[in-house]
Amino acid sequence: MAEAKRLATEATGPLKGIRILDMTSVVNGAYGAQILADQGADVIKVEDPVGTRGGGGDIMRWSGHLPEGCAPGMGPIFLTINRNKRSVVLDLKDAKARRALMRLVKSCDALVSSVRYDGMKRLGLDYEAVSAVKPDIVYVHAAGYGSDGPYAGEPAYDDLIQSASGCADILPRTDGNETPRILPTLMADKVSGLFLSQAVTAALLHRQRTGEGQFVEVPMLECVTSFLMVEHLFDHTFEPPTGQLGYSRVVNPNRKPFKTKDGYIGLLPYTDRQWDQFFEIAGWGETIAKDPRFSDYTTRNRNARELYALVETVTQEHTTAEWLAMLKPLSIPVVKTNRLDELESDPHLAAVGLFELYDHPDVGPYKLMRPPVRFSKTPSNIRRHPPRLGQHTEEVLAEVSEDEEA
């Protein structure tokens, strides 16, 4: 087993000195808040106490299979999106706990919540109430749907947002099977989390410039739909439409890893020169290279289905290593196709150290993906293990005066 990496001793990221109250759970908000924590923010995660049916806290604590001897509530997905945070348990149905939360609010620069806004109102934690205590607070609400639409306030999870946003219609447009299908990754949650982290930093920049806090709404449906339709609005960008919905090169059953003699490669000649070089290597210099369907970028895109089908007829003639050796010197974009269990041994990912081993005092050895974005002057780092439920309650509450009126 590789040697466990030591935690950093202090924050060095660009958000050092920023304190964020994290009232999110599951994946969307928790992932976005972790990005901010990696970048140096002091993120205080507020969680519910254990309920009558056990559990308690972020529900992602209870997903997955824990190793023998591991502390309860430390599920694998929770570990990947809650490092660098401190956990505080507060029963917000209790007036005393709400007063403690408001004391915390006064010490924070931003509050991030994925609790439905009606629920925040019932708790007396809506923007109006919070900004009355902390006028320059950046209050970011991770909503399922925008507040000015008919779905406002409805529950939202990745499965629902993929269904509502058009994501479930992409595979049917690709392979002709009309059954809508959800992509097997928490794409809607994670994309929304990225929008959320960017929204927090933008609002903090505005506050720095003007002294103003503000309410920021990050609605999943709108975020994911806009993300998806960047390319898939395609010919419907024009009014009236000039063609189809769905980017033709991408909505293509032959856009896939290409089979080799011993595996698969990701291959995408892109420029005219790269395609000419590939046609020459494939032995098609006198035939396919002169086919008007594939003569330039526009015609190749229009006929991508036929072109990509042709590519796989030749990729199977050589091994993956042979293709890499032939194409990389020509700067033709090509990679070995990795299976999930090959990622940690990928030469590039190993060289940059994406996967890091840590030794959690309550979990044992566990792996994380280090923050992927590199800041040359203010590097992100990992300085706290994902917390046990309520691990920092006393520590954090001691930092705010009980005598101070909320």
Task: Give me the secondary-structure topology.
Elements: E1 19-23, H1 28-38, E2 42-47, H2 76-81, E3 85-89, H3 95-106, E4 110-113, H4 117-122, H5 127-133, E5 138-143, H6 158-165, H7 170-175, H8 187-210, E6 214-219, H9 220-232, E7 258-259, E8 264-267, H10 272-281, H11 297-302, H12 304-315, H13 320-327, E9 334-336, H14 347-352, E10 355-360, E11 364-369, H15 393-397
Parallel strand pairs: 1-2, 1-4, 2-3, 4-5, 5-6
Antiparallel strand pairs: 7-8, 8-9, 10-11
Helix pairs in contact: 1-8, 6-9, 8-9
Task: Write up this protein.
With 406 residues, the protein is an alpha/beta fold. Helix content is 34%, strand content 13%. It has helices at 28-38, 76-81, 95-106, 117-122, 127-133, 158-165, 170-175, 187-210, 220-232, 272-281, 297-302, 304-315, 320-327, 347-352, 393-397; strands spanning 19-23, 42-47, 85-89, 110-113, 138-143, 214-219, 258-259, 264-267, 334-336, 355-360, 364-369. The strands form 3 sheets. A 6-stranded parallel sheet has the order 3-2-1-4-5-6, sandwiched between helices. It has a 3-stranded antiparallel sheet with strand order 7-8-9, with helices on one face. The two termini are 50 Å apart. The mean pLDDT is 95.
Query: Fraction of residues in helices?
Result: 25-40%
How much β-strand is present in the residues?
A: 5-15%
CATH architecture name of the largest domain? 3-Layer(aba) Sandwich
The Rg value, from CA coordinates, equals 25 Å
Overall spatial form: globular
Give the CATH topology of the largest domain: Rossmann fold
What is the N-to-C succession of helices and strands? EHEHEHEHHEHHHEHEEHHHHEHEEH
The total count of strands amounts to 11
Q: Kindly provide the name of the CATH class of the largest domain.
A: Alpha Beta
* The CATH fourth-level homologous superfamily of the largest domain: Crotonobetainyl-coa:carnitine coa-transferase, domain 1
Helical region count?
15
- Structurally, how many domains make up the residues? 2
Mean pLDDT: 95
The separation of the N and C termini measures 50 Å
**Low-pLDDT segments, ≥5 res:** none
For the biggest sheet, the summary is: 6 strands, parallel
